[in-house]
Write a structure and sequence with these properties.
Blueprint lengths: L1 H12 L1 H21 L4 H18 L1 H11 L6 H9 L11 H28 L7 H9 L6 H20 L2 H7 L4 H14 L1 H20 L5 H19 L16
């Protein structure tokens, strides 16, 4: 809860840019819903897959919190530099890790969308087109246990992804480490503080669901709060004193 409080303070210090992140994701969620509104079997996978790639989407929020912590300027130039000075412009061994790990999460999210869509399409007793179809024939159906299977498979995928990514992106942004180092550090944090990290995962999922079920409007505030909060989770969990700081010409602000 302390991480969330610190995240909210960062959001209050840069409200326009923070809320802009939430607005972009809320509009993206609305776009997905508009495209797949009559194909809820696809929409369910896309919306839940959002949680998988969220650490990548929040990268510039980490950069903003990093700049606030250091007393640096937080502006559009910072966001532009964060998203463009990765290996696309000035390649280096360590900065490429940001892109590689982002692609890994994107593949994981896409894999879940395909798996979720196939599962619901093949095993649902009737075609699933609307949210009510999903609730009636998947969530409330007691004969096929499809919802339990859907949740179980999602959990099996989400748990290792969460453990691998909970502090990886902030660490890759902040320090010169490889993807493997970042992932192992993230797993170590989860295994060292299992109850704390389980509660943190519960908070993230709970707030994201609240944002999604509010017709994505809640994401406008929830996304920046969780993004900034994740930076403070990283700073609280990881001792970076022995790790070399990433320089501005390697893609970090």
């Amino acid at each position: 809860m302390h991480w969330l409080a610190l995240g909210f303070k960062d959001m209050a210090r840069a409200p326009l840019l923070s809320i802009l992140h939430g607005l972009v994701l809320a509009l993206f969620g609305g776009l997905i819903t508009w495209i797949a509104h009559d194909r809820f079997w696809l929409l369910a996978g896309c919306v839940s897959g959002f949680l998988v790639v969220a650490p990548v989407l929040a990268t510039s929020l980490y950069a903003m919190s990093r700049a606030i912590e250091r007393g640096q300027a937080v502006n559009f130039q910072l966001l532009f530099r964060t998203w463009t000075q990765w290996p696309l412009i000035k390649p280096s061994k360590h900065s490429a890790g940001l892109i590689r790990f982002g692609l890994l999460l994107a593949f994981a999210g896409s894999g879940w969308v395909i798996t979720s869509s196939a599962l619901i399409t093949l095993l649902a007793p009737v075609p699933i087109h609307t949210p009510m179809d999903f609730i009636q024939h998947v969530v409330l159906d007691r004969d096929h246990f499809l919802f339990e299977l859907w949740l179980g498979l999602g959990g099996l995928m989400a748990a290792p992804v969460f453990a691998s990514s909970v502090v990886s992106m902030p660490l890759l942004l902040d320090r010169r480490v490889s993807v493997l180092q970042a992932v192992l550090t993230s797993w170590k944090a989860v295994l060292t503080h299992p109850l704390t990290m389980a509660f943190w995962a519960f908070l993230i999922i709970g707030f994201c669901l609240l944002g999604i079920f509010s017709l994505f409007l809640g994401l406008i505030l929830i996304v920046p709060m969780l993004g900034h909060g994740s930076w403070h989770a990283y700073r609280d969990l990881i001792d970076t004193s022995a790790l070399e700081e990433r320089l501005s010409d390697e893609g970090a602000p």
